Amino acid sequence: MYQLSPSILSADFMKLGEEIKKVEEAGVEWLHIDVMDGIFVPSISFGMPVISSVRKKCSLFLDVHLMIEEPARYISQFKAAGADMLTVHAEACKHLDSTLYHIREAGMKAGVAINPATPLCVVEEVLGIVDMVLIMTVNPGFGGQKYIPYTTEKVKRLKEMLKDKNLDVDIEVDGGISKNTMDLALDAGANILVMGSAIFNGEAKENAMMYQNRLEAYEHEHSADLRR
Ligand SMILES: O=C(CO)[C@H](O)[C@H](O)COP(=O)(O)O
Ligand SMILES: [Fe+2]
């Protein structure tokens, strides 16, 4: 399963509802929501009230990326706000295993994220208890940054690791994903692409349709490999 997950961090917040509608009309099924606390990352973005408002008006799968320290403190609140999946940073959790367990217990999908310079071994032990691993392809905190090339290799190694362990876990990439970098990430093994500026800096519906079509074409071309 391949998915495009447009990040509303790059949307026009004065027109957030319209912006989300545009990507919905383009046929996208996921929406990426970046929560930042000003401590784990330098920026502060938005939190539960925004997620609740989005949830009331849209049925997209809400893929919530928590760039906050000790996210375990807020699991039930994010569930109540309407999140479908919570992805926590391994670097931000003292007790990663129990945090992931509690996310699932609360009825959400659980994801674990790592920064570009964090080695894969940090998530190795929890691969059996997550639905997704998010490999940051930029340093978290801001939209519109440049893709860091060495992260491609990390995605490849994660894909191999999952294969060796016979685990069916999604691989999401986030940061600097655009026309020029999406194939690198897909060829390395990613199947969920977060895109912020590539979609919302410009005509969101047209951009989302274009990337959605490219993704569908990629899936079609590689369907034989996937069956193997
Ligand atoms: O987690 C993030 C930043 O920390 C965002 O999801 C990311 O910024 C997406 O934006 P872009 O596609 O413009 O790089
Ligand atoms: Fe993100």
TrEMBL record:
Pfam families: Ribul_P_3_epim (PF00834). A divalent metal cation binds at H32, D34, H65, D174. Its EC number is 5.1.3.1. The active site is at D34, D174. Keywords: Carbohydrate metabolism, Isomerase, Metal-binding. Binds 1 divalent metal cation per subunit. Pathway: Carbohydrate degradation. Gene3D superfamilies: Aldolase class I (3.20.20.70). Catalyzes the reversible epimerization of D-ribulose 5-phosphate to D-xylulose 5-phosphate. This is Ribulose-phosphate 3-epimerase. It comes from Blautia stercoris.
